[in-house]
Fold this protein.
Amino acid sequence: METKNQPLTEALFYILLSTRKPVHGYGIIQEVEELTGGRVSLGPGTLYGAINTLLERNWIVLHSAELGSRRKKEYVITPQGREAFGVEMRRLRELVQNGEKMEDGA
Amino acid sequence: MIQWKFTFDKDEEEFWLNEWCRQGWAMTKFFCGVVTFAPCQPGEFIYRIDLIPGRFLQATDYEGYVIFMDEMGIEVLQRWGRWTYLRKRTAEGPFELYSDTESKITFYNRMRRLFLFALVVEVLCSLSGWNMLVSFPESLLAQGLVGLYIVIIAMVLRAVWRCSWRITELERQLK
């Protein structure tokens, strides 16, 4: 199991991104497929495990809006989740910026 | 139709279930190695086996798991502790539970821990059998009991080994 300072897996990255608005499990799968043009298709087992990991880390929480409507669970990102996502974004930006040196030939 | 199957191997069992489904027999129930089938359209379902996260034999949140899978159009057929049988209609698209190497490794680690726990329990249970065999070496009951334990322990050991082997293969892919 990865620790908090390691790069996020693609699955965790996209799940965190999808929870910027309250979203249910199947909604996450659909959004990730859309965002990646079908390249990343999360398996239900992968998603279930990742959601549990994120809930344990308190990076996402259950979003309990209408209790009576449906038993479907919705998830939403927490400030800690946004913080972790920000750290990862900084790492990725650095990676891309440095990577551009290859094309620049500098 | 009823069949007898006890492999302790998730991949082998999945393959077996899907093979029967291709021949028009859909698994509906499992209890202690007795598998019940009902007629279906050949290849109507895709079967998968999962191990629900939890501690020892107890799933953390079985209800939540069933609702979660139901939302994806996946039917949770049967549970045996944390060992779970799932199926989805083939017409509704591909069905793989784990989509990346990391989560596959997590899965096999979870399964290996469960079998290691089972191994410890089985070895402890077998002690009374060995004790009986030492006291009454002629007893057929003692011989049978020890024989049975040896078979079960060998099967669990094989299951642990298969998990380890798959984890090694998956970790090689990550390097």
The radius of gyration of chain B is 19 Å. The first strand of chain B starts at residue 2 and ends at 4. Chain B has four helices and eight strands.
